[in-house]
UniProtKB/TrEMBL annotation:
UniProt keyword Oxidoreductase present: yes
Highest rank taxon of the organism: Bacteria
Protein's gene: kdhA
Class of the enzyme per the UniProt entry, highest EC level: oxidoreductase
Swiss-Prot/TrEMBL keywords: FAD, Flavoprotein, Oxidoreductase
Record-listed E.C. numbers: 1.5.99.14
Protein name: 6-hydroxypseudooxynicotine dehydrogenase complex subunit alpha
Protein species of origin: Bradyrhizobium ivorense
Keyword Oxidoreductase listed: yes
SUPFAM superfamilies: CO dehydrogenase flavoprotein C-terminal domain-like, FAD-binding/transporter-associated domain-like
Gene3D superfamilies cross-referenced by the UniProt entry: 3.30.465.10, CO dehydrogenase flavoprotein, C-terminal domain, Uridine Diphospho-n-acetylenolpyruvylglucosamine Reductase, domain 2
């Protein structure tokens, strides 16, 4: 299928993009890499009157350490995360995760901002942002605002962005010495959207977690930072405690039924990933099987 007729506008600056969005309200759509928007338009799932192409705004592309923050511009492409020494040093979880996003052609065009704004609950990058305690930077008619991931993601393809807003960057606290990371997903083929996935960040001291953030994806309508992880902090992790945590995690999840998996299968796979993650991060392989 082909998209319905639309007007194309190439934004010349962030201010110009905001003016175009303000003038057209919910009849406008921002175009970044186009890897989700164009298929959706071709399938006529969305039919904007005007597409505001921000792809030429080079000021929105880049990765930099600024003070104690790693700042990633909205137009930074997936492939940039794979190649960036700053990401490798300060947020290696993102590099590990992005290798699972689609295929090279899509990673060459798709952007971090597009992935966050699109808010597919099966996407890797939003769950990483939850695990890494990111702040999303948005500019709109009222100026700039900073939004925590817990408030940003509101449902399937739903975020705190209004039609007049532009996502301009995401900021991550530097991971700090000794931080440990885990990323794994179940997918039918490498590059497919995940059936269930887990992105995690931990601090470990004296054989115990002193912090543990488990960001699951494809287990509900948005990325989920699991509350159950709290059970494992500042305690000696035993097989019994891990079984209790797995039960609490399964209760917490609210997965969808689709062609790929039932809710019960998704709950089971999430607990398997949680066990693998804890075993890997604590370097105690015996915990994986309980
Ligand atoms: P666009 O397609 O340009 O935009 C997506 C949406 O976000 C649109 O609604 C747009 O208006 C809005 N938007 C974009 N940028 C901004 C902004 N700066 N401010 C406000 N709103 C904005 N993704 C995964 O996570 N995992 C996968 O495994 C995966 N597999 C894929 C497989 C295929 C075959 C395809 C075609 C895509 C796949 N994707 C996958 C999606 C891909 O990663 C997209 O690149 C990403 O979802 C969106 O980024 P984009 O820059 O292309 O955004």
């Amino acid at each position: 299928m082909k998209a319905a007729a639309f007007t194309y506008a190439r934004a010349t600056s962030v201010v110009n993009a905001l003016e175009l969005l303000a003038a057209h309200g919910d009849k406008a759509k921002v175009l970044s890499g186009g890897q989700s928007l164009m298929p959706a338009m071709n399938l006529r799932l969305v039919s904007p009157d005007i597409v505001v192409d921000i792809g030429g705004l080079t000021e929105l592309r880049g990765i930099a350490v600024s003070g104690d923050v790693l700042a990633i511009g909205a137009l930074t492409r997936h492939v940039d995360l794979l190649r960036s020494p700053e990401v490798a040093a300060h947020a290696p979880l993102l590099r590990d995760a992005v290798a699972h996003v689609a295929h090279p052609a899509i990673r060459n065009r798709g952007t971090v901002g597009g992935s966050l704004a699109h808010a597919d609950p099966a996407s890797e990058i939003p769950a990483c942002m939850a695990a890494l305690d990111a702040t999303i930077v948005v500019r709109g008619p009222g100026g700039e605002r900073r939004i925590a991931t817990a408030e940003f993601f509101r449902g399937i393809y739903e975020t705190a962005l209004s039609p007049q807003d532009l996502l301009v960057a995401v900021e991550l606290p530097l991971s700090g010495e000794g931080a440990r990371f885990f990323f794994q997903e179940y997918a039918r083929r490498h590059g497919d959207y995940a059936i269930v996935g887990l992105a995690a960040r931990a601090l470990v001291g004296g054989g115990q977690f002193t912090d543990l953030r488990l960001g699951f994806f494809a287990v509900g309508d948005r990325p989920l930072l699991a509350d159950a992880a709290r059970k494992l902090i500042n305690v000696s992790v035993t097989p019994a405690l891990l079984a209790e945590t797995a039960a609490a995690l399964a209760e917490e999840l609210d997965p969808e039924e689709d062609q790929q998996a039932s809710p019960a299968m998704r709950r089971h796979l999430a607990t398997v990933l949680m066990r693998r993650c804890v075993a890997a991060l604590l370097e105690r392989p015996e915990l994986e099987t309980g």
